Amino acid sequence: MHQRCTLLLLILALTAPDPDDAGLIYGGKVAVPHSRPYMVLVERKLPSGKTSICGGFLLSKNFVMTAAHCQASSYNVILGLHDYSKQDNTERILVKETFIREDYVPETLINDLLLLKLSYDAKLSSHVGPIALAAPEAAAPQSCSVAGWGRSDKHPTSMTPVLMEVDITLSADCEDKDFYCFLGSAGVGRGDSGGPLVCEDGKAYGVASGTVEKENEKENLFSKIPKHKQWIDSIMNTV
């Protein structure tokens, strides 16, 4: 369905050059504090020395999922975060090792997955906990939600300090073997890469990868987790 050459020209990677240009959740609302204990803020140290931000989500005590195009020189993850300006009860952990999907295609964001192994186990609590992943045989979802920190309708020029969320309905007319997608003005943007697409059964079905501009709407793309579930399990069970 997607013309890959067009996608290459139009794709907007959702990473941000610095923390003040982090992602956009448009058409959404402030999330109930700690209602998404799996949400992770990934701080990336770039080769230039600058710090950038991606989203992510906790899979186990020592693994976080994010997007492959969020690669960096080094990483810290922040767990248990709701308000970026109030981090007293959060946990910041250095990433020890990274595992990129070996067939990731940067030009089209196909197979856009990156696993981060933490330097030590996270302390699980009501504010910090993993999310289950959709199985390979899972039926295509419809009603889902996405979340992230960064710019929003009320904070169009700076990072939104609190976690924002928005409910979405996936588009049947843009079904693709690599991506789930939906059309509309609401959704994710720069800085929200790597965040989870969470659907009806409370499981993560996708990883936020990019958007394609289409007239007055944008097509939000999420790399399909069921397609990669076997790879994810093999990494987490062997390292």
Description:
This protein has helices spanning 4-10, 225-238; strands spanning 12-13, 24-25, 29-30, 39-45, 51-58, 63-66, 74-79, 91-100, 114-118, 143-152, 160-169, 179-184, 196-199, 204-214, 217-224. The protein is mostly beta strands. Strands 1, 2, 3, 10, 11, 12, 13, 14 and 15 form a 9-stranded mixed β-sheet that branches. A hairpin with a 4-residue loop joins β13 and β14. The longest helix is centred in the C-terminal third of the chain and has 14 residues, at 225-238.
Order of helices and strands: HEEEEEEEEEEEEEEEH
Number of strands: 15
Q: State mean pLDDT (0 to 100 scale).
A: 85
Calculate Rg over CA atoms.
16 Å
What class, by secondary structure content? mainly beta
Distance between the termini: 36 Å
Q: Helical content, roughly?
A: under 10%
Count of individual helical segments: 2
Describe the largest sheet.
Answer: 9 strands, mixed
Multimer state: single chain
How large a portion of the residues is in β-strands, by DSSP E? 35-45%
Shape, principal axes of CA atoms: globular
Uncertain regions: pLDDT < 50 for 5+ in a row? 1-24
InterPro entries: Peptidase_S1_PA (IPR009003), Peptidase_S1_PA_chymotrypsin (IPR043504), Peptidase_S1A (IPR001314), Trypsin_dom (IPR001254), TRYPSIN_HIS (IPR018114), TRYPSIN_SER (IPR033116)
Catalytic activity: Preferential cleavage: Arg-|-Xaa, Lys-|-Xaa
Protein name: trypsin
EC number: 3.4.21.4
